[in-house]
Amino acid sequence: MEIKQVILKILSSNTEIGEKIHNIKEDESLLDYGMDSLQMMRTVVEIEKALDFKFCDEDLLTANFTSIGSILASVKSVLSDTENN
What keywords were assigned to this record (predicted)? Predict the structure, then answer.
């Protein structure tokens, strides 16, 4: 499964957004759709489990998890760093 699809599936099942996630543009704020900090952290944990990696503390900034695009960029960055080490 493609990384973006994994993220969308996790967001759909771990936030109040649900299936509406598929209609949200990548740059739109998920906070505007009701995502709160608890749902954000639950999403982070589920992404780590699904893709078998850990975000480092420096990556756990709210700004990195407020839109589909920012989450995708953060995940790809961490996975790229992991592959290069």
Answer: Phosphopantetheine, Phosphoprotein
